[in-house]
Structure formats: C-alpha cells, structure tokens
Amino acid sequence: MTDQTPVAKATPTLPDAQTVTSVTHYTDRLFAFRCTRPQSLRFRSGEFVMIGLLGDNGKPLLRAYSIASPSWDEELEFYSIKVPDGPLTSRLQHIQPGDPIILRPKPVGTLVIDALLPGKRLWMLATGTGIAPFASLLRDPETWEKFEQVIVMHTCREAAELTYGRTLVEALPNDPLIGELVADKLLYYPTTTREPSAQMGRITDNMASGKVFADLGIPPLDPSIDRAMVCGSLAFNLDIKKVLEAAGLSEGANSAPAEYVVEKAFVD
Ligand code: A2P
C-alpha cells in the first residue's frame, strides 16, 4: 500500500436512518422538511418522536419533534425553528433532500384526541412552532368526525411566521380527503403580536378579554362542550392554562381524558 492508495473511509451507519425528501424555508428562523417514514411506524396524529443527526462525537444528537404530517401520510413532515447556536438546529437547518436523519420510531405525547373527553368545539391554541402537531391533527379525518367546530388560534411575533400554518389551513377546504368535512367547521384566528396586521394580540389576552368570541361570533368557553389542545412556549402554556381553568376546563392525559391537553413546543 502506497501513500496514494485510496483508503475506504469508515462512514458511520446511522441507527434508525431516514432520508430527507424535501425542505422548505419559510423565514430565516423557520423551516419545514419531509422525510421517508419507517414502515413499522404507527402513530396518533399529534404525537412526537425523537429526531436528529449524528453529533461531532459520533453520538446521536436528538430532540423531541411533533410529527406535523397526518397519520395516513406515507412520508413524515416536521416544522422547526432555526437557532443559530442551537446544538441541533444550527446543523439541521442545512439538511438537503437525500440527506440522512435519525428518527427513533417511538411516538408519544398527550396532544391526542384520545386524551380529551368527547365535546363539540375543539380549540387548537398554538404559538410559534407549536402549530406543528396541529398540522397533523388538522389533516386527520378523525378530528373532523369527532368535533362540530374546530377553532385554530395561532400567534407569532410577525406575519411571515404564520405562513406555514396559514398555507396549511387555507388548503384544507380543497383537500380531497377531508375538504367536505371541513367546510363549515373550521374557524381560523391567526394573530401577530409585534408586527401590525389585520388581527393582533396574544391568545391569552384575546380569550380572556372575550375578543376572539366577539370577532368570530361564537359563545364563550363552556366546559360541557369545549375541548382545547395547547402547544407553545412554556410561558404561554402556563398562562393559557390559567385562562382555560378559569373557564372551568381541566387538564387531561392519556390515562385520564378531560377537557384540555398541553404539550411544550420545540424551542432549542
Ligand atoms: P409577544 O410578542 O407579546 O411576546 P416567542 O417567539 O417568544 O416564542 O413567542 C411567540 C408568540 O407567543 C409571540 O407572539 C408572543 O407574544 C407569544 N407569547 C409569548 N409568551 C406568551 C405568554 N406567556 N402568553 C401568551 N402569549 C405569549
């Protein structure tokens, strides 16, 4: 063997590897991507899995990500923030179609319809990337079969940050699978808090003040008919829980379904 002899590089084989199929950048802080789905993976819309990349030390660098695609989709979709010095997202934001990612096929989470008691109205309350699990639930026929009305409140600082959710919500009435079910059931209430737009304000404030009910022309929260799913920052989750509890709703879990459920949105 001479110095010129090419030496086969030891390419580490990723455990639980999947392949990225498409990437869409929405802002310099937000992007979505799709990847192949392990054949064995079954999940309930709204659940999350651990995904990531191989770290510099050769160990998997994994974070919890809500699956944004519905359970019937043959691929998986994820919606992510880009944090410049975030251990995972500083690298994940550069993935391209064809790249491998690691995906542990063990879905879990409480943001599932099974963790709610039957009801008439379902509120989906999200800040920032917290819209991801609702992107899954909104495309699942079960959501529309189980509720008479679905109200999506999504709040971001700036209008461009609403684009992923808005595009998805606006496409629902034309969806061949659920379009007809959605028709008269969907109410969408996007707001910004820092950039002026048609509708503004925090979800907590718009609920507590009664503004959202007045704007949509619907009755206030009633624990006998209203169910809520919450996904946002820790501060938002804590504050919206107070608003929901004040209206008489109590928190549910897989083991004890009740009127609302909460999950923290991915932030790193
Ligand atoms: P605000 O601009 O008034 O802080 P972030 O990017 O910080 O995660 O925030 C996403 C959105 O969630 C922003 O519109 C922000 O509003 C809102 N938000 C942040 N904290 C809370 C909270 N405790 N209650 C309600 N909304 C919140």
Automatic annotation (TrEMBL):
SUPFAM superfamilies: Ferredoxin reductase-like, C-terminal NADP-linked domain (SSF52343), Riboflavin synthase domain-like (SSF63380)
Gene3D superfamilies listed in its UniProt record: Nucleotide-binding domain of ferredoxin-NADP reductase (FNR) module (3.40.50.80), Translation factors (2.40.30.10)
Domain named FAD-binding FR-type: residues: 13-114
InterPro entries per the UniProt record, alphabetical: Cbr1-like_FAD-bd_dom, FAD-bd_FR_type, Flavoprot_Pyr_Nucl_cyt_Rdtase, FNR_bac, FNR_nucleotide-bd, FNR_type-1, OxRdtase_FAD/NAD-bd, Riboflavin_synthase-like_b-brl
Enzyme class: oxidoreductase
Cofactor: FAD
PANTHER family: FLAVODOXIN_FERREDOXIN--NADP REDUCTASE, OXIDOREDUCTASE FAD/NAD(P)-BINDING DOMAIN PROTEIN
Name of the protein in question: ferredoxin--NADP(+) reductase
Source organism (scientific name): Roseibaca calidilacus
Name of the gene this protein is made from: fpr
